[in-house]
TrEMBL record, chain A:
It is found in: Cytoplasm. GO terms for biological process: DNA strand elongation involved in DNA replication. It comes from the Bacteria. Belongs to the beta sliding clamp family. Forms a ring-shaped head-to-tail homodimer around DNA. The keyword Cytoplasm applies. GO terms for molecular function: 3'-5' exonuclease activity; DNA binding; DNA-directed DNA polymerase activity; identical protein binding. The keyword Transferase applies. SUPFAM superfamilies: DNA clamp. This is Beta sliding clamp. Residues 1-120 form the DNA polymerase III beta sliding clamp N-terminal domain.
Amino acid sequence: MKFVISRDALLKPLNLVAGVVERRHTLPILSNVMLVLEGNQLSITGTDLEVELVGRVALEQMPAAGGEITVPARKLADICKSLPDGSDIEFTVADDRVTVRAGRSRFSLSAIAAADFPNVEQSPGSQQFVVKQGDLKRLIDRTSFAMAQQDVRYYLNGMLWEVNAGHLRMVATDGHRLAMCTLEAPIDAAEQMQVILPRKGVIELSRLLINEDQEVEVVIGSNHIRATTADFTFTSKLVDGKFPDYDRVLPKQSTKAIFGSRDDLRQAFSRTAILSNEKYRGVRLLLSDGSLKIIANNPEQEEAEEIVNVDYAGEALEIGFNVSYLLDVLAVLSGDTVKLSLSDANSSALLEESEQGDSRYVVMPMRL
Amino acid sequence: MGKLYGFVFYLGGVYCFYIQLIAFKMLNSATETSLRKIIHCDCDCFFAAIEMRDDPLLRGRPMAVGGSSDKRGVISTCNYEARAYGVHSAMATAHAKKLCPDLLVVPHNMAKYRLAAQQIRDIFYDYTDAVEPVSLDEAYLDVSASSACQGSATLIAKEIMARVHAEVGITLSAGVAGNKFLAKIGSDWNKPNGLCVILPQQVADFVVELPVAKINGVGKVTAEKLQRLGVQRCGDLQAYTVFELVELFGAFGQRLYKLCRGEDDRPVKVSRQRKSLSVEHTYPEDKDSLSQCLQQLPALFAQLNQRLEGLEGSYLVTKQFVKFKFSDFQTTTVECVVAGSIRLSVYHDLFQQAFERGAGLGVRLLGLGVRFQVSHDSYGEQLPLFPYDLTLHG
């Protein structure tokens, strides 16, 4: 196997695929990427056995023969990255070595036969749909921040995808706050399907969705999901667990509706956050007619206070929140106005762009 | 080990030292984890037990805590009488009533459950600081370093069960083992009000017979896959190499490989917020004068400071206090508000005041302590989004 590829064509897919590969693993071959050459198409595959990513790139010069081999992912990516722009890179495979040459540089990498490279197990797909990459990315970007990390409730360390006829919904929660976004899309579904994507899969998938206007095909099986674009095929295992019933925690009868400028609120919260407790991040919100006062204290007895004009008339309320949770939401919302719905100091808050928006965010308060 | 060192000497100086360091660390952590004593405590049908405790009419009949059937409610917890009908948590209340028409469903009273959970947690803290609450009604305790009950984890577990029954009025089940995985299985083994101790020498025989479905993280899909492979017990699973398991189950395969051998080195993660810290000493002979008491002060002060350093400044001291136990076994505490770091002169004054309270009695015990800013005031408590689910999946 021998071929030449321009550095610039190789770098993008190689970096994305190498991103899936774990630095340390029980199986040495999992630190490698697999290079498969068929005709003038080179595919690069990386896997951690949960998530598999295949990148495809066409060679300008037709190689003499096809073949397959695996090489250390990180090292290859680092080498390609540090070669000068516009270089042509030549790969030569001989025995258990891969030689990489560009200009006057030469690297000899240890290789493992591709036959030993594991496949992520495939199950028959039972749901398929096609959407714009930009739409799918928007769903992920609007919700992924709320996923749990290393929670004992392992089903929270991921994202719920709910497929219904005509719409796709994503929900993420860490048990303190919840993010949900819904896309109207031409989806045929006889019945509702709910699956949980692992956290890593969600993050890797979002990185691939670079061509907003191009399509991505999604196939969901009983224990895996696959997304295919022109340049990549992404496969991830699904989390085996039951996601909590998110509908039960969406506040439905909030008594107080507050409208405010998203930017004013975001800036006021980020400033007060400076003097909130670094670990617990609590801020107090004092709501009264027409204004919202935000107060933060830290263990050093320092204090921050902000007053923001809001559109509200009704009874006063004092309620505490983890300011990071509010800031996370305000950062992903767009539009000038944000709607905040509250009831009392112990009930959850609902944040939305407006009632017509496609996203809803629920944040539980802190008892301060 | 010999082999590794042989290899190490072959390498250069600095690198060699580095590898020795790693080898030493590995050895160290191995001994640390192999000697652990973990208790997993799990209240028996917690919400239902609290309701039955407070209302005798709920006892001896099928009952559950949950949302009402006309509002699409779900059962959070049900008692054992209801379980006999097939009712279980996370079931729609309407469905539960079909299975058991006599089922009485009472609404949640989270404030009450939270109070009981706090009482139970306070009992845990009497035995160890290393308490990891998993949910309101469930916690892991690492009692490896505990001196209570002559250091016997089994006796500690028995005492906790008895105290929770006497002081809170409900029962809990406990599992005692060398790691979290086995302790959790133990607490479920003889439920309700049961204790199961898995001694290190019993682990190998115990896991061989253990059904794989008991492993936390083996859900419906994984269990079905194992079933297809003909794997029902951990013993069957032990026949697979780590590579095969990783191929079959991805990253979870590595964990399965260890779990089916009864190995689990996850530490008990401590999340406690301390309210106070103190040191005390009982003397073989009573101290009859203030000056004799003051003689002990520097040693106690140094000890307290050392304990405070262990907390690495994560707490704010609001009060200093002293505790005296007199020859008639009466105890008195004198405290005063301070800010910043603790001062010896403050304890000096407090000793004087405390000694005077004894009106001439000898002192058998001296204690020094500090109180911290209570977290509720300063930091706040994050409320959960799914308070009921914590018990559903516990």
